[in-house]
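ZP: hey, is the nicotinamide-adenine-dinucleotide complex queued? I don't see it on the tracker
AM: it wasn't, my bad. submitting now with these inputs:
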Amino acid sequence: SSSTTPITATLFPGDGIGPEIAESVKKVFTTAGVPINWEEHYVSTEIDPRTQSFLTWESLESVRRNKVGLKGPMATPIGKGHRSLNLTLRKELNLYANVRPCYSLPGYKTRYDDVNLITIRENTEGEYSGLEHQVVRGVVESLKIITRQASLRVAEYAFHYAKTHGRERVSAIHKANIMQKTDGLFLKCCREVAEKYPEITYEEVVIDNCCMMLVKNPALFDVLVMPNLYGDIISDLCAGLVGGLGLTPSCNIGEDGVALAEAVHGSAPDIAGKNLANPTALLLSGVMMLRHLKLNEQAEQIHKAIINTIAEGKYRTADLGGSSTTTDFTKAICDHL
Ligand code: NAD
């Protein structure tokens, strides 16, 4: 369904290689005729007292208003008295689920060639609640918070995602044999939601077994949903299965229908400003954003052009064993459109 009324989306080019790979996205989207107007926002050099962070209130308002955005990597400045950029975005925009598709790219050889799974990570609580303290000297405590509300919300998102993306199975990843109360509640919520989706197969897999299965045969999995820390670890493991940081996209889902897509990697200061960065992860994140906007035709077209460029092997960036610059690789993708 291609629409002709332009959609406004927020773009955070970010730091380091961010502006270079954001330029690549703009170029590819323009060439593909995607009806998007970018509203660009940069990380400020001063702390905004309204957000206690280097992200300004106006930047956050832009995402809230547009409900959709694309984010490059951000390097959190060192020093006291401010919140980390990613934490600010997550809290202020209520980004409760992190979605990472993980699939083998045809033509780019890795250990596996049939990976096609999605990890969905609860993003607001669990072990990341920031509740750590010393009980007495030599004894510290960290609280893992699991709530019915957040568990139902992420489970509902996972099943809805499975249903609307032609997926057949949802696996809840847990350690409820040990964390009986917390992971127990998480599973209970997943089971409740599963009942509303009889067409989707539901299973529960203990996390240690899940790791073993993932490295032995990742094709066993379809959609995985899990609490925060497990999601952090498993999603990086899965990125490693298909070729690493330069290729892996993600999207953060917030309340009120907000979607903020972002590459998984950081600002890569070692190669910044040298026209060497691989823009694939940010481009594929942009493709996720287009799918979220139901611009499926353009999403598919851009996705194919990226895959074909990498598969052809003539233009590849250094991280994929090639010698192309960011701009040459981008031009090759545009030529494939
Ligand atoms: P990094 O991901 O920036 O770099 C790790 C290695 O991967 C480097 O050798 C880098 O050159 C390479 N790499 C990463 N992305 C690449 C790409 N697109 N193309 C080619 N090579 C690529 O991780 P880091 O060095 O640990 O972190 C650097 C900075 O990024 C830190 O300030 C960190 O806080 C920040 N960071 C931000 C995010 C985010 O905004 N989501 C995520 C991770 C790290």
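AM: back. The longest strand covers residues 95-103.
ZP: great, adding it to the tracker
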